[in-house]
């Protein structure tokens, strides 16, 4: 008798709810019947009917879904195709066919991408996350939810953002991460209030109620559960009402058994009526527990068997495995599409680079011509305005050339050209040709390296070798050159600022070896790795710094070299160190009789 009475009240309650829902659905059906033209609005209305019926009449919902699919295909309405797949995913989720449900959502994303609908993509990502949450794969569920949050914030779709955060808190709650659950509810609540959507607000009040009950704040929990139920009834959301009924039984221990049974039977009836297998599983499990506490073994066993049947369908290994397979296949497909897109983008960028390089070359040509014209105008004392322009351009040129001066001393170029002239005047055509060939190779190397901030160690050493070869020719092989380079540097992908030690090598030759009368002059360069630095050592057995300085005072009174100073600044900037740090150490060398025997320069360059 008691069971019949309970079922009677449940039937009266649900009939009222369904009647309210039917009024909304009936009004949309009437619009469809009166609308003769099959257009996008017609298809969207069919989708809304299908969506509304998905929690009330699965058979009718599926029939309307098929109409949406058919009409979207025949009119090539890609947006409608995406909507249809989302609806199919919901219907399949209700029956716990998660692998097919996810497959539908993945298709929906493909259609959404095709028509540029980020909103439908965000909805699909959230629904995939909900499937994974139901299967208790919480890590992957959160991954898809966060992707959806990014899209919804970009679209300013605040309803979607609220739904995303509420789903995150469901995963947190199931994993007993109560602090995280509360944080996600607090993050999402402003968006829920902003939408004033009763469906969303019902979910958030339900979440707050569960947390209050977990913290043993029973009165607060009851308050939130009632607010959740009120919001659910505003739009006759049967699914949300079901969740409130289940939460009351599960989280409020003081409810009388008769009320628990009434709530659980209401939940079970809604679940069966809407084909919601998750709800059937939860309701029957709680009914089995309640009847067991009441010592009603027959009813407890009956509902336990129903629960096991539903739970086995929900969490079967086959179900989980198929979901993983569907996701993996889709991810591979998406990666392939993305790779093809990147290849196309790279091709466009390459074409764009060619155009930019052409424009840059043209601009450089114009710039050089402008400097030539400005210089000509300046030399011929033309109008004041043109002289001012020439002066400005000259200053710009000086600033731009400052870096090149730090890489290659202009005096070296002058001396090299003089050497070539001397060879030619002395009819040393072969030596002049050899010198000119190496000189042009070095100039080409320097110009190439000036296009980038860094150069491989091997390339840098090749340029340095060319420079020293030229100096040997210039000084008639007065000195020999030795190198000791760590093989790890030559074989690895280590990079340094171009010609960073060239000024020190030049100093050793020009100011040490050039002034020496020894016949066995030696220049040695070594490079090795120590901790996080490349250590260079440049050593010569020339006259030493003091004697070289005395020679310069006597013979080059107007000479002022900035090469070493600029190079030190480059090293400090590259190593990101203060100028008080000794990145460059210069040591004077002496023999046992305290006579100068040359100098050694040690340079530290940071490893990248």
What would you say about this model in short?
By secondary structure, the chain is of the alpha+beta class. It has 24 helices and 7 strands.
Task: Report on this structure.
The chain has 24 helices and seven strands. The protein has helices at 2-34, 40-53, 58-75, 78-94, 98-115, 118-134, 138-155, 158-174, 178-195, 198-214, 218-234, 238-251, 257-273, 277-293, 297-314, 317-379, 384-407, 410-425, 429-449, 457-474, 487-491, 502-513, 545-555, 563-575; strands spanning 454-456, 479-485, 495-497, 521-530, 533-540, 584-590, 596-606. The strands form two sheets. Strands 2-4-5-7-6 form a five-stranded mixed β-sheet. Strands 1-3 form a two-stranded antiparallel ribbon. A hairpin with a 5-residue loop joins strand 6 and strand 7.
Blueprint (SSEs and pairs):
Layout lengths: L1 H33 L5 H14 L4 H18 L2 H17 L3 H18 L2 H17 L3 H18 L2 H17 L3 H18 L2 H17 L3 H17 L3 H14 L5 H17 L3 H17 L3 H18 L2 H63 L4 H24 L2 H16 L3 H21 L4 E3 H18 L4 E7 L1 H5 L3 E3 L4 H12 L7 E10 L2 E8 L4 H11 L7 H13 L8 E7 L5 E11 L2
């Amino acid at each position: 008798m008691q069971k019949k009475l309970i079922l009677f009240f449940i039937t009266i309650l649900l009939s009222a709810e369904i009647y309210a829902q039917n009024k909304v659905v009936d009004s949309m059906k009437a619009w469809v019947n009166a609308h003769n033209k099959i257009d996008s609005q017609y298809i969207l209305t069919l989708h809304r009917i299908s969506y509304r019926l998905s929690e009330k009449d699965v058979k009718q919902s599926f029939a309307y879904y098929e109409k949406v699919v058919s009409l979207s295909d025949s009119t090539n309405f890609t947006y409608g195709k995406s909507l249809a797949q989302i609806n199919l995913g919901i219907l399949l989720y209700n029956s716990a066919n998660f692998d097919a449900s996810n497959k539908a959502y993945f298709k929906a994303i493909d259609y959404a991408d095709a028509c540029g609908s980020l909103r439908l993509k965000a909805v699909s990502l959230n629904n995939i996350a909900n499937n994974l949450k139901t299967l208790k794969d919480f890590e992957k569920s959160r991954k898809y939810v966060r992707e959806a949050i990014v899209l919804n914030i970009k679209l300013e779709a605040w309803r979607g953002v609220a739904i995303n955060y509420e789903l995150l808190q469901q995963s947190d709650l199931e994993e007993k991460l109560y602090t995280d659950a509360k944080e996600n509810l607090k993050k999402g609540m402003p968006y829920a209030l902003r939408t004033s959507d009763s469906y969303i607000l019902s979910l958030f009040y339900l979440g707050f109620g569960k947390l209050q009950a977990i913290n043993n704040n029973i009165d607060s929990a009851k308050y939130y559960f009632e607010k959740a139920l009120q919001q659910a009834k505003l739009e006759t959301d049967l699914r949300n009402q079901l969740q409130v009924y289940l939460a009351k039984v599960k989280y409020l221990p003081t409810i009388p058994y008769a009320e628990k049974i009434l709530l659980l039977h209401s939940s079970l009836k809604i679940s069966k009526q809407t084909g919601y297998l998750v709800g059937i599983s939860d309701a029957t499990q709680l009914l089995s527990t309640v009847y067991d506490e009441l010592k009603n073994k027959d009813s407890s066993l009956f509902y336990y068997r129903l629960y096991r049947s539903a739970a086995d369908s929900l969490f079967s290994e086959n179900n989980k495995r198929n979901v993983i397979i569907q996701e993996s296949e889709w991810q591979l497909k998406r990666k392939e599409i993305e790779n093809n897109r990147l290849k196309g983008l790279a091709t466009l960028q390459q074409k764009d680079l060619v155009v930019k390089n052409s424009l840059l070359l043209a601009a450089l040509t114009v710039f050089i011509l402008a400097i030539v014209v400005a210089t000509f105008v300046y030399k011929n004392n033309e109008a004041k305005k043109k002289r001012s322009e020439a002066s400005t351009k000259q200053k710009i040129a000086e600033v731009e050339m400052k870096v090149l001066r730090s890489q290659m001393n202009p005096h070296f170029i002058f001396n090299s050209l003089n050497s070539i002239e001397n060879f030619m005047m002395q009819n040393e055509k072969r030596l002049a040709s050899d010198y000119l060939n190496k000189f042009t190779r070095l100039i080409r190397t320097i110009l190439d390296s000036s296009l980038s901030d860094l150069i491989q160690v091997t390339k840098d050493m090749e340029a340095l070798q060319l420079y020293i070869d030229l100096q040997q020719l210039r000084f008639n092989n007065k000195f020999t050159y030795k190198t000791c380079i760590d093989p790890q540097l030559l074989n690895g992908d280590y990079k340094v600022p171009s010609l960073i030690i060239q000024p020190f090598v030049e100093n050793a030759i020009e100011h040490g070896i050039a002034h020496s009368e020894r016949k066995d002059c030696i220049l040695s360069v070594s490079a090795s790795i120590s901790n996080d630095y490349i250590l260079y050592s440049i050593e010569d057995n020339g006259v030493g710094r003091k004697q070289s300085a005395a020679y310069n005072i006597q013979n080059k009174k107007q000479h002022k070299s900035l090469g070493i100073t600029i190079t030190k600044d480059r090293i400090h900037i590259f190593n990101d160190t203060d100028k008080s740090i000794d990145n460059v150490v210069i040591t004077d060398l002496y023999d046992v009789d305290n006579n100068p025997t040359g100098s050694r320069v040690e340079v530290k360059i940071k490893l990248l």
